[in-house]
Amino acid sequence: MVPPPTDSGETNSSAASTRSVSDLSERELYGLVRVAAEDAVLGAIGTLLLAGLGLILFLGGLSGLLQISSPSPVAVAIAIAFVVGGAYLFASSLGAIPSVRDLL
Q: What are the angstrom distances between the C-alpha of 7 and each of 23, 31, 32, 71?
């Protein structure tokens, strides 16, 4: 990520946090908006990728459960792990349930 450019040599964070948007120069405001837009786009892409991966894992595990002709306990356990893990990843990436990071 690109940090917002600074026009002055101001390093005091408390002084910088009390500034309003109207006090920012055009260059600083452009930098802030660019970083915010980049974060939003990367967040959306990451959410879609995680949801897609969760869906693939879920459907792969479900397919594995349905295609087991002679069910061995190991194969069933692996398929169930894929189904549960995929469903959890899909739901947590969309914010329906808390993620592991929020639980810890």
A: 12, 11, 13, 68
